[in-house]
């Protein structure tokens, strides 16, 4: 996907808002990482945050770690909603797969198929 500089900036801001909102939800202090995409999780020990201002699915891709938890956050820039989460491995089902015609194929999980946000810490230390 080719984005202009303003599009890249907007995408980065939406992502940062989601990460900060999730840390507040978790009641933890958040220190953001810069340029560590895929090498270390966005938040805490094993959590990746996916933020959007319009897409109503949780998106994962082939290069995403299937053992991490993926949290969906919706934001309009001034407010954020923690929608839900799934393990990366749970997103990789045929029913969610979408081909993007030679670009970046992905799995798109509708919000109604995500686990409740409050359950994300039930089985792990963060």
List the helices and strands and how they pair.
Elements: H1 5-26, E1 47-52, E2 57-60, E3 69-75, E4 80-87, H2 88-91, E5 97-98, E6 106-110
Parallel strand pairs: 1-3
Antiparallel strand pairs: 2-6, 3-4, 5-6
Describe the structure.
It is a single chain. By secondary structure, the chain is α+β, with helices and mostly antiparallel strands. It has one domain (5-34, 44-119). It contains 2 helices and 6 strands, in the order H-E-E-E-E-H-E-E. The strands form 2 sheets. It has a 3-stranded mixed sheet with strand order 1-3-4. It is globular, with a radius of gyration of 14 Å.
What integer value in Å does the Rg equal?
14 Å
| Strand composition percent | 25-35%
Number of helices: 2
Q: Helical percent range?
A: 10-25%
Could you spell the SSE succession in H and E letters?
HEEEEHEE
Number of domains: 1
**Spatial order of strands in the largest sheet:** 1-3-4
Q: Which outline best applies?
A: globular
Uncertain stretches of 5 or more adjacent residues: none
Which whole number gives the mean pLDDT?
A: 88
* Strands, total number: 6
Oligomer: single chain
Q: Structural class of the helix and strand makeup?
A: alpha+beta
Report, as a whole number of angstroms, the end-to-end distance.
Answer: 33 Å
Q: Characterize the biggest β-sheet.
A: 3 strands, mixed
Task: From the structure above, extract its key features.
three-stranded mixed β-sheet; single chain; 21% helix; alpha+beta; 2 helices; three-stranded antiparallel β-sheet
Concise structural overview:
By secondary structure, this protein is an alpha+beta fold. The chain is 21% helix and 25% strand.
């Amino acid at each position: 996907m080719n984005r202009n500089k303003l599009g890249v900036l907007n995408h980065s801001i939406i992502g940062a808002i989601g990460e900060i909102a999730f840390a507040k939800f978790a009641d933890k202090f958040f220190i953001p990482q810069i340029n560590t995409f895929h090498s270390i999780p966005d938040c805490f020990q094993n959590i990746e945050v996916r933020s959007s201002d319009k897409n109503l699915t949780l998106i994962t891709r082939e290069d995403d770690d299937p053992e991490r938890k993926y949290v969906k956050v919706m934001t309009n820039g001034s407010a954020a909603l923690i929608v839900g989460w799934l393990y990366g491995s749970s997103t990789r089902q045929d029913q969610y797969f979408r081909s993007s015609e030679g670009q970046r194929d992905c799995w798109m999980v509708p919000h109604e198929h995500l686990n409740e946000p409050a359950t994300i810490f039930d089985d792990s230390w963060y």
